[in-house]
Task: inverse folding
């Protein structure tokens, strides 16, 4: 792992290496774009071309795509609903469509005709159509003297009420009220939902995941992290589930490709759906992240990855089944380790403590401020002290809830308790349960369940809540783990959950009948539910307290700084801009911002994760390709690029646009140093990584033989 520079040296190097204009920190809401003076920063088009609330703009070309609509960002690149996004966003759909005989995951997939396009299982596409401030409506439910738990419950209920009411007014839309600032600002987003998404072109694993976890979050990168999907709707344009009668969706706007690419210093911008950032949180939050949450998740996911890899040795079908989970867990754990390293080396907690000390001094200097905000920081600290006390319990039960066996049992209980028990509803539930069973590997889930039970057993006695499965109090850690796993497997052998047919048959039972069946999995799920009711009540009280206190803290900070703040990212559509730019991550090290095909040939070993297609290496060695793909200054085909934009998770798949609003790349990662972006952004070390559009087109043409795609994109080579 590369070392971070000290902050003073980073700032000095940044000044020396700066090309002139710098980027600004900020994942800006759409309403803020017009206030940024982007012309002075390098934008060459009217700002209304980016976002125009009264007309069509680039915003209409952006979508959120993935399983259930989540996952990442995509962009429409043709009038026929063609979506460009990341290979790792399409990965779950490719894995689901793959078999050892048709290994699209390893070999890639090309649909040479529309009829050959494969449904992306459980994928949806969401397109933001409008948004409006609903703060006054949401906050109308908050009354003086409310208990914290009641406050949090009332706010959440009102947010859901507003969203559901809006959905009832329109067809084919989904609505969400997003909290922009805790207790201060709420916005209703309305999105068009598309339910039929299909795979069009996916490069081989040796392109789309070249370098694997070795290169993940690192630079230089040589990963062709891109895929093409297509959105479909009913012939009348309405949203519809997959049908052969469906037709390609026509977006209001699609993005033009710029084949000339980029060079260092070029202005670039992104529209996308960044996940969560925590830049307005206190030192208490950061301390909890550093001491408990990030290490606990990293350790658990490392263990789960190792368990699945061992189970899949020599079994390609099982490797395919585990592929998406392993990739997802590996991505998270490396990200968290990068965050931990950055937090410690930059001493973020200490810096935040000092900031709060200065803020408190500002508050104390004025009697009115002291009366209004004097205890806010210390009160927040007390809330987090309680959370610290229960952090391991909440982690243990969260992991227990992630278990697919327990999750399926919870779904069964919910269905059994539903008021609507019509035959067609039960049949849909059975289909869902069958899909859940097919999705899980019982051996792995049994091992994960046993580990969660051991975690619960290690908690203080008053935090355990579970009695269904006994845990030995003596013996080594390995002996206790073996004993609990044996107990879990014995319980599963006596459960209807051991076979798909018997598990699905439980959907016919009422709640009373389920309980009377004395199934050990149902018994454990009932205990888990009771435990979570207690835990969630505590969490709601904490949420209500923080909602009030963090809102007040934000008011105090804006008074102190005499400025308005940009809200933390929250999976809603945002804008960010910056410049193609290298950086210096370590002493005597300067990274240029473009990697090339030469780097793939240098890294190639012929074995995963450095196993590029032979055709790709041959193309490099023989140079038997159209030289228009090359960067003129480098004399090589560019692969990936660096830029100093402010991005985070969820920005995966976002279009990297040039000053004219044209597509020059697809965002897919950050550097290891920039994993800390969630807590703090810096011009010096925050760098994001995108696949260069020239490489995307190169691979589509020469590896995928997908000239039809280039034609649809309006590209000629």
Result:
């Amino acid at each position: 792992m590369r070392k971070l520079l000290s902050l003073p040296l980073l700032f000095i190097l940044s000044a020396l290496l700066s090309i002139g204009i710098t980027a600004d920190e900020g994942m800006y809401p759409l309403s803020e774009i017009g206030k940024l003076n982007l012309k002075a920063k390098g934008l060459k088009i009217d700002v209304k071309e980016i976002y125009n609330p009264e007309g069509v703009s680039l915003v209409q070309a952006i979508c959120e795509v993935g399983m259930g609509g989540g996952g990442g960002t995509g962009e429409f690149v043709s009038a026929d609903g063609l979506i460009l996004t990341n290979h790792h966003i399409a990965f779950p759909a490719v894995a689901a469509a793959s078999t050892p005989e048709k290994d699209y995951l390893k070999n890639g997939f090309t649909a040479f005709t529309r009829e050959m396009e494969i449904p992306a299982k459980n994928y949806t596409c969401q397109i933001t159509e409008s948004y409006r401030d609903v703060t006054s409506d949401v906050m109308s439910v908050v009354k003086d003297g409310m208990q914290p738990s009641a406050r949090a419950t009332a706010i959440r209920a009102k947010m859901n009420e507003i969203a559901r009411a809006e959905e009832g007014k329109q067809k084919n839309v989904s609505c969400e009220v997003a909290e922009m600032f805790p207790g201060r600002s709420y916005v209703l987003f309305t999105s068009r939902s598309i339910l039929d998404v299909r795979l069009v072109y996916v490069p081989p694993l040796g392109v789309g995941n070249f370098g694997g976890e070795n290169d993940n979050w690192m630079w230089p990168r040589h990963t062709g992290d891109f895929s093409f999907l297509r959105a479909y709707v009913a012939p009348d344009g309405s949203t519809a589930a997959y049908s052969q009668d469906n037709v390609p969706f026509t977006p209001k706007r699609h993005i033009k490709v710029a084949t000339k690419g980029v060079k260092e210093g070029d202005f670039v911008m992104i529209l996308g759906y960044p996940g969560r950032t925590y830049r307005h949180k206190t030192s208490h939050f950061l301390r909890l992240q550093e001491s408990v949450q990030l290490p606990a998740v990293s350790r658990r996911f490392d263990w789960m990855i190792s368990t699945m890899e061992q189970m899949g040795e020599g079994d390609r079908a099982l490797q395919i089944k585990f592929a998406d989970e392993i990739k997802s867990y590996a991505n998270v754990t490396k990200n968290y380790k990068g965050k931990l390293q950055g937090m410690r080396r930059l001493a973020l907690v200490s810096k935040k403590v000092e900031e709060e000390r200065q803020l408190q001094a500002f508050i104390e200097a004025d009697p009115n401020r002291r009366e209004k905000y004097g205890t806010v920081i210390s009160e927040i600290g007390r809330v987090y002290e309680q959370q610290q006390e229960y952090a391991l319990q909440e982690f243990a039960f969260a992991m227990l809830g992630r278990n697919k066996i327990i999750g399926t049992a919870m779904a069964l209980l919910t269905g059994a308790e539903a008021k609507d028990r019509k035959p067609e509803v039960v049949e849909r539930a059975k289909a869902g349960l069958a899909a859940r069973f097919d999705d899980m590997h019982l051996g792995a889930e049994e091992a994960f369940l046993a580990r969660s039970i051991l975690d619960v057993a290690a908690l203080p006695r008053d935090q355990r809540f579970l009695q269904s499965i006994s845990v030995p109090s003596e013996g080594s850690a390995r002996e206790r783990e073996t004993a609990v796993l044996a107990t879990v497997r014995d319980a599963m052998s006596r459960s209807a959950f051991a076979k798909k047919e018997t598990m699905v048959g439980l959907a016919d039972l009422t709640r009373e009948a389920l309980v009377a069946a004395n199934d050990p999995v149902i018994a454990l799920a009932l205990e888990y539910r009771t435990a979570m009711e207690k835990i969630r009540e505590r969490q709601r009280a904490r949420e209500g307290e923080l909602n009030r206190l963090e809102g007040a803290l934000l008011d105090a900070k804006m008074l102190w700084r005499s400025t308005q703040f940009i809200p933390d990212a929250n999976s809603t559509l945002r804008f960010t801009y910056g410049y193609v730019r290298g950086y210096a991550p370590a002493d005597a090290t300067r990274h240029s911002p473009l990697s090339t095909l030469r780097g793939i040939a240098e890294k190639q070993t012929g074995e995963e994760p450095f196993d590029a297609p032979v055709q790709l290496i041959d193309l490099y060695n023989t140079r038997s390709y159209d030289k228009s793909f090359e960067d003129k200054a480098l004399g090589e085909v560019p692969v990936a690029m660096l830029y100093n934009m402010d991005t985070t998770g969820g920005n995966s798949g976002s279009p990297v646009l040039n000053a004219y609003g044209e597509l020059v790349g697809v965002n897919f990662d950050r550097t290891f140093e920039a994993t800390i972006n969630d807590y703090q952004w810096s011009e010096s070390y925050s760098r994001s990584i995108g696949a260069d559009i020239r490489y995307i087109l190169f691979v589509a043409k020469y590896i995928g033989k997908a000239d039809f795609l280039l034609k649809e994109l309006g590209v000629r080579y």
The mean pLDDT is 93. The radius of gyration is 26 Å. The CA atoms of residues 343 and 676 lie 7 Å apart.
